[in-house]
Design a protein that fits this description.
heterodimer, A: 128 residues, alpha/beta, Transcription Regulator spoIIAA, six-stranded mixed beta sheet, two-stranded antiparallel sheet, 40% helix, globular, B: 541 residues, alpha+beta, Phosphatase 2c, domain 1, five-stranded antiparallel beta sheet, rod-shaped
Chain lengths: 128, 541
């Protein structure tokens, strides 16, 4: 299975984050700014990758690190979908460890992440 | 061009042929003249030889020769001692005068040589020497010693040249001819020399043949060279013409391309015009849409009548996905029972956001005015439900929705106000004047009809939060447009900074607060583009 690497991109107005998913050791990260108009198109390969990763090795261990400076509303919808896929993985025997780094004094994002934790029931470590 | 060349070619061709023909004729003529000259020279030489011999004879007054069968005494010679007899030798001699001698040489020549002589006179002593008709005519024409005549006579068997020159009377002649009445210097007669023409004609015709062959060869060589040259130059011309026509063709192609370019330029220009036209239309259409949106947004006058307030409303595009809503409900005695105010942030911005804002506005009004639902939490639940129905989200799996900050304000005694707040992913910020504190109440984590909404039952629950505020306290309702605006380092303004800012300006006039917020926003944004629609409303109680 191939690694997934998508470079961070910034075009005058919108911004997409860096995606770095390692198939060999299960270390994955999304970092940067997710200010995207068409989030479905951008995150679709990520969803596909996660699905394949868990279907190949259901008892795999994944370590996901999230580090956003900002994400817009439609990106947050995509993040929900992504986290639900991870949740599904844990239900099928995988081990998932998530670390979410939140920018200092951004309590809105913190609130959001807390909401996500309660919503998904996933164990997410919040780091500042 | 081509015709001129052709004409030139034919002129040269004709000229060459003419030159050859003229040269041929001239050469032939010269050859003939040469032959005549040769014959003349030869005949004259013979004539002179005979004349010299005769002079010699005359000088001696005649010579004596032996009388033989063939040489009998000349009966026309009337001189004394015509015959001499040498008895001792037993020989008889007779006198031979120039005329007799000439006749005898001529007779000898007749048998030994092809060249013949004939001595003649218009008044011959010997009748046999009488001039023929031709000779008589020629003799009549002679005037001086150098005169002569030459004629070519063509016979069936043999062609000859006949030459004739006059014999003038000299001293020696008078011995015999004085008696005829001649004086010295008179034309006494002539000698004709006849030469067979065959040898000359043969030589001449050989030369003529050579000339002919030479001229034919010259003509042919000339013509062939000309034709070859013509073909060669034609080939060159053709190559040039081909190249020319190729160039012509290329030029033509370039012209066609230029035309096409021009056409596509025109097309582009037209399309551009059309796009500009469309763009203008769309712009004017959107501008018009804004006037509608503006009309649907609550009247500032009505809000002003109710509260001291400011409204910072900055659409990202012309029309906005953010909107605010204001509604007053009255009791039976026509007094204001409650004021509803909301700030909503629809997903998307621009036209799509504006459509959502229209739906939001009309649904809020409908829920409050017609259905008379006054609990903010319930209003949001209904709004959520109705939008889902309106947008057929169950079938279409749409995620279009809105974040809403909704407050109900009811007057209490002693200038106090009860604020009931329900938030769909929006918070309510307020300033507590007495404590000089800026505070906020979190809304529910669910958005209206949109992302982040996870419910197991059909209905989405929202929470009412009640606070009692005093006069001078300020409510701040906002979308996330202000706090989410990035600066040149892509760092957003942020809620913490926003709350600090509000605290710092809370003692200012509402209009001044508006100004400060706007300035602060512009400073933060710098050269960056506006990220989202912005709506911030402040209400001082």
């Amino acid at each position: 299975m191939d690694n997934l690497l998508i470079k961070e991109e910034e075009n005058n107005f919108f911004c997409s984050p860096k995606i770095d998913f390692n198939a060999a050791n299960g270390e994955c990260s999304i970092s940067g700014e997710s200010f995207i108009e068409n989030t479905v198109e951008f995150y679709c390969p990520v969803f596909e990758w996660i699905k394949n990763f868990f279907s190949e090795t259901p008892d795999a261990t994944m370590k996901l690190s999230l580090d956003f400076s900002y994400y817009n509303t439609s990106s947050s919808k995509a993040l929900y979908d992504l986290l639900f896929l991870l949740k599904k993985g844990t239900e099928n025997g995988a081990t998932v460890k998530i670390i979410w780094k939140i920018p200092e004094d951004d309590f809105e994002m913190e609130d959001d992440v807390i909401d996500i934790i309660s919503e998904t029931g996933l164990n997410i470590d919040i780091v500042y | 061009m081509k015709k001129q060349k052709q004409l030139f070619f034919y002129v040269v061709l004709f000229s060459w042929t003419a030159i050859i023909v003229v040269s041929y004729l001239w050469n032939i003529n010269t050859t003939k003249k040469n032959t005549v000259g040769l014959v003349t020279t030869q005949s004259a030489a013979f004539f002179e030889e005979i004349e010299t011999t005769r002079l010699w004879n005359a000088k001696h007054g005649g010579v004596y020769v032996k009388i033989t069968d063939k040489t009998q005494p000349n009966e026309y010679l009337d001189v004394p001692n015509r015959e001499l007899f040498i008895d001792s030798l037993g020989v008889a001699l007779t006198k031979v005068n120039p005329a007799f001698m000439t006749r005898q040489i001529a007779e000898l020549a007749k048998t030994n040589s092809k060249i013949q002589y004939h001595i003649t006179s218009l008044k011959p002593i010997r009748p046999a020497n009488k001039a023929t008709e031709w000779e008589a005519k020629a003799l009549g024409n002679f005037k001086k010693p150098t005169d002569y005549t030459l004629e070519f006579i063509e016979n069936d068997s043999i062609s000859v040249y006949r030459y004739m020159a006059p014999l003038f009377v000299k001293k020696g002649c008078l011995k015999c001819h004085e008696k005829q009445g001649y004086k010295e210097g008179d034309i006494r007669g002539g000698i004709s020399v006849t030469t067979p023409a065959v040898a000359f004609l043969e030589a001449e015709s050989l030369q003529k043949f050579n000339i002919l062959v030479f001229h034919i060869i010259s003509l042919l060589v000339g013509l062939v060279s000309l034709i070859l040259f013509k073909n060669y130059s034609q080939k060159n011309y053709n190559i040039l013409t081909n190249k020319n026509s190729e160039l012509e063709q290329q030029k033509e192609e370039i012209n066609v391309q230029a035309e096409r370019l021009l056409e596509s330029n025109t097309e582009l220009y037209e399309k551009n015009e059309y796009i500009n036209f469309q763009s203008e239309q769309i712009k004017s259409s959107i501008k018009y849409a804004y006037t509608i949106q503006e009309a649907i947004l609550p009247s500032k006058k009505i809000i002003d009548r109710a509260f001291e307030n400011f409204i910072l409303f900055k659409p990202k595009d012309v029309v906005s996905g953010d909107f605010y809503w204001f509604k007053q409900i009255f009791n039976e005695s026509k007094e204001v029972e409650a004021n509803f105010i909301a700030v909503a942030d629809c997903t998307g911005h621009g036209v799509s956001g504006a459509f959502m804002s229209m739906i939001g506005t009309s649904l809020l009004s409908e829920i409050v005015t017609e259905r008379k639902i006054y609990f903010p939490s319930e209003i949001l639940s209904l709004l959520d439900e109705n939008i889902r129905i309106s947008l057929k989200q169950e079938e279409k799996k749409g995620t279009d929705g809105m974040d809403v900050c909704l407050c109900k304000l009811e007057k209490l005694e002693a200038d106090r106000t009860k604020v009931t707040f329900a938030g769909a992913k929006r918070l309510l910020i307020y300033f507590d004047k007495n404590k000089n504190e800026i505070k906020y109440i979190k809304g529910d984590k669910n958005s209206i009809a949109g992302a982040g909404l996870r419910t197991k039952s059909g209905k989405v629950e929202f929470t009412d939060n009640e606070i009692i505020l005093n006069k001078g306290d300020i409510l701040y309702l906002s979308s996330d447009g202000f706090v989410d605006q990035n600066n040149s380092e892509r760092k957003k303004y942020g809620m913490t900074k926003f709350l600090k800012l509000l605290k710092n300006i809370s003692d200012k006039e509402m209009s001044e607060q508006n100004q400060i917020l706007e300035t602060e926003y512009k400073n933060h944004k710098g050269q960056e583009e506006q990220r989202d629609d912005i709506a911030v409303i402040g209400i001082r109680l």
